[in-house]
Amino acid sequence: MKIGNVSQTVLRRSILKQLHTRREEAVLVPSVEEMCSAMDVGPGKQVVFTNVSLFGDEKDLAVFAMAHALNDLITRGAEPVGVNLSILLPPHAYESRLKAMVEYAEKMAEEQDVQILQTKAEVSPVISKSIVTVVGIGTVKAGELIQSSMGKPGQDVVLTKWIGLEGMLRIVREKEEELSQRFVPVFIDQIKGLRVHLMAAKELNLAKKFGVSAMHQVTEGGILAGLWNLAEASGTGVEVDLKKISIKQETIEVCEYFHLNPYQMTSAGSVLLVTDDGEGLASLLERNGVKASVIGKLTDSNDKVILNDSERRYIDRPAQDELLKIYV
Question: What would you measure as the largest C-alpha separation in the chain, in angstroms?
Answer without folding.
Answer: 59
